[in-house]
Amino acid sequence: MCCLSDLLAACRSTFNIGVVMKNPFAGLKKKQVKLQFSTCGEIMIDGLPFAFGVESAGKASDKGLCVSISGEAVNDGRVTFSNLEYYENHGGKITLVKHGFSLVTKKDGKKIYQAKFTKIPITEKDTSVLFRKLTEEEVVQRLNCEIAFKVTPHFSGEDTPEVMLTVYPYENMLTGSAVQWLKVTSDKDYFLHKYSNK
Question: I need a surface site. Which of 32, 60, 107, 153 has the fewest CB within 10 A?
């Protein structure tokens, strides 16, 4: 006849009761390299420079980052880009640096614009100033941590296709990206028309 202790032992071995399993999500709580947009325009307008900036939302990295713009309108050649530039800070002096922005074909055959910045360091997010008024020095320090860019879109259609702007750190491409979907227009007076129709 079977006793209760034999039955419990059989259940433990069958259902792994009492076996400690490793949590597969334990590493996700660890601080990671992550970017977020600090500034980003509302819409891209044909021929006008479009500005955007990113800042750290996690730990520091010296592996650099990548800027890409993709979408069906990029893939089919309706929207193109030129003159990618970024602002570089040298001891308080800011200079605008031109950078290539190549149209590349990914493994899946789709085309995207991509620029690699392997020498731009990502600073650690400063959490000491989240809930208090910033001093002038702290404002300047935060501006120095921002990585700012501008690029010129080209589009001549009547519609407003969407493109995806992505800035990702090489150290954490999958979950550390800053991503924004943006419309593109050929209407150079977009804001005038938008606000005069209200």
Answer: 107
